[in-house]
Automatic annotation (TrEMBL):
UniProt lineage: Bacteria, Pseudomonadati, Pseudomonadota, Gammaproteobacteria, Cellvibrionales
Protein name: Replication restart protein PriA
Similarity annotation: Belongs to the helicase family. PriA subfamily.
Entry EC no(s): 5.6.2.4
SUPFAM superfamilies, per database record: P-loop containing nucleoside triphosphate hydrolases
């Protein structure tokens, strides 16, 4: 006789609150527990509110009493499969983040707020079993049906919207349906990032590209650094890898930096894979579009998923490869909330899914380079430019004691003029936007400061404003000193706006295109702005680092770097690395076509050994030297480093909190050669938006020593009752 055992069903959920624990609930009343599965979203009551939580486990016992029932399922869909839950748990653990917040970060806003997934459902056309058995040449007598059949055979199922943009008509679809070869099914839409483009010609691979592709085994995990000169054809390698993965019926994930996801990049991908469903995920999307793309990725409908940082948390059930383009880019690190590095997570994701991971850059981060040089990652290199482009020639132009005109040496201005006259294009890189980074009174020395930050206000002349670039505080430009009423006020230093004025005056017969955050509110605006440059007419481009990446402008033969010195003397130990990357990337814009390129680098300190090394031997040698320096100083990536951050309107409280944290940690692990403490010290930008910021730095010879200590200090800090003080752990922090 069978005994009926009364089993309790308890739901263990990730609830979006800043507490490092899970919460137990009873199943929703009236809902059969068989309908519940890990990875689903549920509505739960929490402290008088109704929140969207994610079911992680169904258990039989709970250490807690007085459990409340959950309110109900948001929908029946399992959004987070097993692999995805594993990655998110790893993130919470490694970055010391509350798991509920990790899930909230992974979900697009609309789904986080509880919109059901089928809100965006649409119809997908797929082959039936009979359809799948047909040869490509079947139906030769009905060309429209045959074309459609070929797309479905070659590239898999297609959404109704996508079929429309591809130009397939409903009559052909119905005819195939009547023959029992195709059928409709419901699934999420993938809004195409761009209208389907013409299939672009595929270049023959050169031998370096071929070797790289042969070194990557598509069938299992490996992590590789592709260190390839700018213009060496890395993107072509990515496209081939993606092709292989699509051919094997799997999804490709491509991560790009924030300013790298331009219409130009998307065009290159859509034109190579016009019949594939491509989901693009980036911050420029409306909530609904973002949710749709996310669901298409998570449901497996999207073949190619391309996105910025947060795309790394999107579940991908058929993942076949992870590619990170410009892996050194700082935008892969999230600087608030869950402070993860998408580039590092790419490797974790690839390992979990047992698929290859490729990190590509002309200027690899020291972290990745260290992993490659120590043998943890495979080190692949491409040293030559693809096609017939040659590497540019680099010259330093000393600027100390030179008669500069708005920051430009006469020699540089002459070269710009010559370039334009030859019908070619010049690009001028200036690291600061606005007219001038400071405004000062000549008589009493008054400086325009931000009232909320420890920084100067930048003068924007066209808008007649002074603006803080840290908190966006704005005030009208003054024409007399607020302190002594003198009218002799000077703009100190230069920015893009100031240079634009000079260059437009000097070279007014050519288009002068300024590219910075003030002129390009959107990616589309940038695309439009660059149109004359793409057409190949002689023109002058000037701008900030937005110009350093991703743009392939074959008629640019001269690149000018107005000031190479900024990063060489910063208090941030990462500044030389970033400067080196930026200079090499900007220089890499020169001579990408058949015309040869020249780079002019203005510097007040042309003898600086790091600058010399960079300009003479290139970024590779420069980065290896920096790595040796970091090892000596016991800094990352050789040592592991985490910051405990605190910020507060009252500086004393932040400092005191960190001081106590240090005492607490030292009582657990006293300082030693293995673990070292520094601080509390003020952040480089000490005051931001009215709050004083401090950090405590903990370095360790290994992460294994650091992790348990961080977990303990988080538990300690959660007991902090000062509501006006904000604190965070920043593992592998990128900013000081
Ligand atoms: P990277 O991503 O390394 O900067 P790209 O992939 O953008 O380089 O390639 C630079 C240029 O060279 C592009 O115009 C690209 O079309 C071209 N290219 C890439 N691979 C080849 C090849 N094998 N043969 C000819 N041209 C190529
Ligand atoms: Zn004054
Ligand atoms: Zn400010």
């Amino acid at each position: 006789m069978q005994e009926s055992v009364q089993q309790r069903v308890i739901l263990r959920l990730a609830v979006p609150v800043p507490l490092r624990r899970l919460f137990d609930y009873l199943p929703p009343e009236g809902l059969s527990p068989e309908l519940l599965q890990p990875g689903q979203r549920l509505w739960v009551p929490f402290a008088g509110r109704k929140l969207v939580a994610v079911l992680l486990e169904i258990v039989q016992e709970s250490p807690h009493t007085g459990l409340k029932p959950a309110l109900g399922l948001v929908d029946s869909q399992v959004l987070f499969g097993h692999d995805s839950r594993k990655l998110l748990a790893w993130i919470a653990d490694y970055y010391q983040a509350p798991l509920g917040e990790v899930y909230a970060t992974a979900l697009p806003v609309a789904l986080r707020k509880g919109k059901p997934a089928d809100h965006w459902a649409e119809q997908w056309l797929q082959l039936t079993i009979e359809g799948k058995g047909l040869p490509e040449s079947a139906l030769a007598r009905a060309p429209k049906q045959q074309a459609l059949l070929q797309v479905l055979l070659r590239d898999g199922k297609q959404s109704r919207t996508h079929l429309k943009t591809l130009g397939h008509n409903p009559t052909a679809i119905r005819a195939l349906q009547d023959r029992g070869l195709v059928e409709w099914e419901s699934g999420p839409t993938v809004p195409s990032p761009l209208p389907a483009a013409e299939r672009a010609p595929v270049p023959e691979l050169n031998s370096e590209q071929q070797q790289v592709l042969e070194a990557i085994d598509g069938s299992c995990f490996s992590a590789s650094l592709l260190e390839g000169t700018t213009g060496s054809g890395k993107t072509e390698v990515y496209l081939r890898l993606i092709q292989q993965v699509l051919d094997s019926g799997r999804q490709a994930l491509l991560l790009v930096p924030e300013i790298g996801l331009t219409p130009q990049t998307l065009r290159r991908i859509t034109s190579r894979f016009p019949t594939r469903s491509i989901a693009a995920l980036h911050s420029g999307l409306a909530d609904g579009e973002r949710a749709q793309s996310w669901l298409a990725a998570a449901g497996g409908q999207a073949d190619i998923v391309i996105g910025t940082r947060s795309v790394i948390m999107t579940p991908l059930p058929r993942l076949g490869v992870v590619i990170v383009d410009e892996e050194h880019d700082a935008s892969f690190k999230q600087q608030d909330g869950v402070r993860y590095s998408a580039r590092d997570l790419a490797v974790v994701l690839g390992r979990n899914a047992n698929v290859p991971v490729l990190l590509g850059s002309a200027t690899p981060s020291l972290e990745t380079l260290h992993n490659a040089l120590s043998g943890r990652y495979q080190h692949l290199r491409m040293r030559h430019r693809a096609g017939d482009a040659k590497p540019p020639q680099i010259h330093v132009v000393p600027t100390l004691r030179e008669p500069l005109e708005e920051g430009f040496s006469p020699q540089v201005l002459r070269h710009i003029g010559d370039t334009l006259m030859r019908g070619e294009q010049a690009l001028v890189f200036i690291n600061r936007r606005g007219f001038a980074p400071a405004l000062s009174c000549d008589d009493c020395g008054w400086l325009a400061d931000c009232p909320h930050c420890s920084s100067k206000l930048t003068m924007h002349r066209r808008q007649r404003q002074l603006r803080c670039h840290h908190c966006d505080y704005r005030r009208p430009l003054v024409d007399s000193c607020p302190q002594c009423h003198s009218h002799s006020i000077s703009a100190l230093g230069g920015g893009t706006e100031r240079s634009e004025e000079l260059l437009a005056r000097r070279f007014g017969e050519y288009p002068v295109i300024r590219v910075d955050r003030d002129t390009t509110a959107s990616k589309q605006a940038l695309d439009k702005l660059l149109a004359p440059a793409r057409e190949g007419k002689p023109c002058l481009l000037l701008g900030t680092q937005m110009l350093a990446k991703g743009h392939h402008l074959p008629r640019v033969t001269l690149v000018v770097i107005q000031d190479a010195d900024g990063g060489l003397f910063s208090a941030d130990f990462r500044a030389p690395e970033r400067t080196g990357q930026l200079l090499e990337q900007v220089a890499g814009r020169a001579g990408r076509g058949s015309l040869s390129g020249r780079v002019l680098v203005q510097s007040r300190f042309p003898e600086h050994p790091l600058l010399q090394l960079l300009l003479e031997k290139g970024y590779g040698a420069f980065a290896r030297q920096l790595l040796r320096d970091r090892a000596v100083a016991q800094l990352p990536p050789v040592n592991a480093m985490a910051l405990l951050r605190a910020e507060c309107e009252e500086p004393r409280w932040a400092e005191e909190f960190l001081h106590n944290a240090r005492l607490f940690m030292q009582s657990l692990v006293p300082p030693s050669p293995q673990i070292q403490y520094l601080g509390p010290v003020p952040a480089l930008l000490e005051r931001k938006s009215g709050r004083f910021r401090f950090y405590l730095q903990v370095t360790a010879q290994s992460r294994a020593q650091l992790q348990p200590l961080l977990a303990r200090v988080c538990a300690w800090a959660e007991g902090n009752k000062n509501r006006r003080l904000r604190w965070a752990v920043d593992m592998d922090a990128q900013e000081l």
